[in-house]
């Protein structure tokens, strides 16, 4: 497919691999922020190919993995109601809350529907006015324009049977939280390309200035990732730290202004609980005042539950680069994609799932 | 979750406000996509789609840059012979 396949060309990748090896005088530690990048690095064998030249550690950029258990529990509670149709991206179905997953809720008779887009959930609400259609809105700033558009369309249609569980998270506060930790090992970041497609990358200027770490806006295909890694190593070898865009075909400095305006109109920045991390200041989004009638938490306030924390999963250590998934004592034993202890083993962008799936690539 | 898929704009269905939609072709498969955030796109443009909406256009000029860079590094590897002409891929 145009703009995918040519970025997977093995011979071109080899040129970049050779250049990375040529310029590296030592083994540098880079963190790819996005779980999609983690999967691509493992799937295409890049992490293994560069072993000893670059250590790639995996960041917190899997929104499914960091969705608070309380939100999953709330979604499961709603799914059990006969008047509710709970809609979600497929990624969320098998992620365990403290008392089961959405898939468990569906098995027990709950109405849980996978949708490709939140706008499909709006259509379901239009077609089934007798049902309360709730969309579980997870995702980084990449996904927020779609859910903001869903809210605006629902308002235009005057739907009183559509609402959102807003669990959107913001990537940069998590990166800040990570580098504030005294034992972090990150020497450069490969920033999440598609978040930057929407939000741009101006906001990283202060981050780079404050922490003196290179930030490279990076895409998802093998050549994108290799280009990002090479740019990061070149900066590190030169003793520099600046903001660099290696994904310019999709990312402009100010991002997509229309999408940003849409997000700004519907959402406000708020503190947010991240699974494994706890409360992150400015780490999420919540609906602004004019749109609060679409807030499922307010509409179904009686469905909240106390959360029973599962302490066995080492997701925090995995998502902060402290622990490689195979180093976890539960990996591949008590914790597999079939019997996950935590979200990183089931999410399509979870680092543990990537290692389990692509081990030996 | 954060992956965007590139596709080519085939036909505008509706080009007004929050209900803007266009038909997009992804590797031979056509799908109607919400276009409220990329209303400036024209037929033939490649766009990036995520969760059912277009989130940006793909800049064709910028897309070629990496291949130009590789070409500048020389042809010792013969890498560009494995690419279709002009660095493009025929689906």
TrEMBL record, chain A:
GO molecular function terms listed in the Swiss-Prot or TrEMBL record: 4 iron, 4 sulfur cluster binding; carbon monoxide binding; iron ion binding
Keyword Iron tagged: yes
Keyword annotations: Iron, Metal-binding
Residue ranges that the Swiss-Prot or TrEMBL entry lists as coiled coil: none
Database matches in InterPro entries: Hyd_form_HypD (IPR002780), HypD_1 (IPR042243), HypD_2_sf (IPR042244)
Keyword presence, Coiled coil: no
One GO term (biological process): protein maturation
UniProt record similarity statement: Belongs to the HypD family.
Protein name according to UniProt: Hydrogenase expression/formation protein HypD
Organism ancestry: Bacteria, Pseudomonadati, Planctomycetota, Planctomycetia, Planctomycetales
From TrEMBL, chain B:
GO biological process: protein maturation
Family: Belongs to the HupF/HypC family.
SUPFAM superfamilies assigned to the protein according to its UniProt record, in alphabetical order: HupF/HypC-like
The species this protein was found in: Gimesia algae
Protein name according to UniProt: Hydrogenase 2 accessory protein HypG
Pfam families the UniProt entry points to: HupF_HypC
PROSITE patterns, A to Z: HUPF_HYPC
Source superkingdom: Bacteria
Gene Ontology MF term list: carbon dioxide binding; iron ion binding
